[in-house]
Structure formats: structure tokens, C-alpha cells
Design goal:
mainly alpha
């Protein structure tokens, strides 16, 4: 067909073995073997971390402009939610206190995003002190 671009032979020679290696699920099968719920929880925690951490790093693009930095504070909820989820999956469901670094990384990422989202904010100007009394507003004269 004219106009259809296909993959070149060199690309196929590289991509097919890599896909073949990636599709072999031996490590995942070992984690999930014989109803191992702890392994499934750890696999879920690692998978969602692999997905959300790059998204969180991309959200740091909101830190470029001072006008979009407050939006970064809102999106800090993503690693905050992942802190709770991975803490449950790793510590409670998985029973692996040695992997505490995973939820702690998400917590640190959420804290950094929240802090960077607040940079450059100016505090509001103080309100004027208003004097209450019978002669306010001043009407002139003595």
C-alpha cells in the first residue's frame, strides 16, 4: 500500500526478542504462585508505583510558572494517595516492613510537590486598622 510506513527489518530484529523477553511472566508468576496474597499485594504496589511516579515527575512541569504552581499543590494528592495505598499493600497486605521505603518515597514526593507548589506566593497585605467610634468617617472641621 502506498503511504503506509512499516517497521524496518532492523527494528523488527530488535523489538521481537525484547517483546518476547518482556512477555515471559516468570517473576510475576513466582510472586502469585499458589494463592500468595502477599506477592500480589507487592506486585500491585510496584506496578502502581511504576505508573504514578513518572506521572508525578511530569506534573512538576507546573512548577515552571508562578501562576501554575498552586495547581501542583492540588496534584500532590496523587503521590499522597499512593502513600496510603502502598503503605497498605506493602506493610499490611504484603507483610514486608523491610520495604517501607516505597510508601516513604511517595510521601516525600507528595511533600516536595506541596512545598514547591507554595513557592513564590506572596502573603496577603495586612488589613487596615479601622477605628470604630462616632466620628468615623471624619467629616472635616473641628
Amino acid at each position: 500500500m502506498p503511504g503506509v510506513i512499516t517497521m524496518r527489518t532492523a527494528g523488527r530484529r530488535i523489538l521481537v526478542p525484547l517483546l518476547g523477553i518482556a512477555m515471559v511472566a516468570v517473576p510475576a508468576q513466582a510472586l502469585l504462585a499458589e494463592g500468595n496474597d502477599e506477592g500480589a499485594a507487592l506486585l500491585a504496589a510496584m506496578f502502581f508505583s511504576f505508573v504514578t511516579v513518572p506521572i508525578s515527575f511530569l506534573l512538576f512541569l507546573f512548577a515552571i510558572s508562578a501562576t501554575t504552581r498552586p495547581v501542583l499543590r492540588i496534584f500532590a494528592g496523587l503521590p499522597g494517595l499512593m502513600t496510603v495505598l502502598t503503605a497498605y499493600w506493602v506493610l499490611i497486605a504484603g507483610g514486608r516492613p523491610d520495604m517501607i521505603w516505597l510508601p516513604m518515597f511517595h510521601a516525600a514526593l507528595a511533600a516536595i510537590m506541596f512545598w514547591v507548589g507554595g513557592l513564590g506566593r506572596t502573603p496577603p497585605a495586612p488589613m487596615m486598622m479601622v477605628q470604630s467610634g462616632t466620628d468615623f468617617p471624619p467629616q472635616g472641621g473641628v
